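Quick one:
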Amino acid sequence: MGPSYDLVCFSHLRWDFVYQRPQHLLSRCARDRRVLFVEEPVLDGGAVWLEERDCPEGVRIVVPHLPAGSSAEDADARQRLLVDELLRAWNVHRYVLWYYTPMALGFSRHLQPLLTVYDCMDELSAFQAAPPALRERERELFARTDLVFTGGRSLYEAKHSQHPRVHCFPSSVDVTHFGRARAPLDDPPDQAAIPHPRLGFSGVIDERMDLDLVAGVADARPDWHLVMVGPTAKIEPATLPRRPNIHYLGAKSYQELPAYLSGWNAALMPFAHNESTRFISPTKTPEYLAAGKPVVSTSIRDVVRPYAEFQLVRIADTLCAFIAAAEQAMREDVVARQRRADRFLAQTSWDRTWEGMARLLDEMAAGRAAPAAPYPASVKATHAAYVSVPASP
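Output:
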């Protein structure tokens, strides 16, 4: 364990939504130090308070609750007071601020951490309904941050000239967890009755998905069954293609995923080509490979490099090519494919990724003293008292 400090994370993603990069990294951080994971606010009433709960990985989840209809300015002002109270309540003195969203600067730029880190896992400004101020806030965060991590090579290439300390840490995989899918596992009840061959997708179904391609595959090959595992976000469920051979199974826990993947004949990444997919580095790529599945993807840059270059993933963009690639993938020699995947996956793990990040953090934190005033003496809130709600039994 390196220098003593706490970590305070500001995230646009909720801890319980999909288990992905933030959860993998910060759960490992929590093995050695306190981690406070501050989510975006819930606008649900007239009270202003903080909901707090512990997750099994040891991270403290913090959810601000604000009045419905709060303006952006009011929301920032109230969250600023709540965050100050949070740091006092937890007696936080030496801490690292870890950002997933630059928008959190609106209520946190007054803080005085040992270090500031920006773990840039997506080009958020390219997503649907991105706040207009996001690009400006990201420029400010680059000016303030000590370290920038990127979740893939494309993001690194886009960001490395904007800061002197940008490091590429592509998303990784827990090989042991997903490797369970290589053995026959009991089919989950909602998948058991779906015929084979099954071609599956696991992840968030949103504007990054090429829904026309999904529908086209289902129409062209009615004997194939497309299994879509994951929540729908930022698109209307009514816009999803509905076919007898497309099965939307909804969100599943991280622990459940190997059982679903075990029953697939191939794994798909039918991503659209648009601004929201320009810099993505799908975590599911190494997860599919660890599960032992043949993979077919559209030509996402961080999938082509390195996965297609190492003959680990088949790439196709047109409907005919995608269908042909899936047919070829399901005829691959399983042993040869898994050997190629294992040689590649042996070079990466979430443990190794976190160790590399932590080494950089510790090196910078070691030479820094805690500020004299670790959190400012904010004016006491007059609109509400600070309330901490314990986790439900």
